[in-house]
Amino acid sequence: MGGAIALDLTLNCPERVAALCLVASGACLRVAPVFLENAGNASTIPQVAEAMKEFAYSPHTDAKLKELASKRLIETRPAVLRGDFLACDVFDVRERLGEIRVPTLILVGSDDQMTPVAFSNYMAENIPGAQLWMIENAGHMLMLEKPRQVSQALSGFLEQLVIAPAL
Prior knowledge:
Rossmann fold, mainly alpha
């Protein structure tokens, strides 16, 4: 959802955006029915949490991390979770990606099932000058699964932005 917000801001208020980092995102974010059907009811949110363990993480991710994240998800109010999923499900800016004119970094986990590598490849091909960085053995929650690699990618991208104008 954060990527959708960042893309929306970049496309609709470009004067407010100096650079764009998209982490585990896509230009179109269809949500699996299992999430939409079960997110709005407190009694079925545990089913969403279980599905997230399977779909949002790499098979290489520590089970303890998945369990902790699952507990946090269950604490989310059903109306909020369902609203987030519904907003993602209707999001689609594929036709507008060519309008983006700021430096862009796209990060994707090699094992992301929710916003697969193909989504990131599409954005990289359609956002002028975009850089794509794949993080191996990470899923949709790559910022939790591989925080050091995500931090390194973001730091390197930001360093390029600081150095480039001085040239």
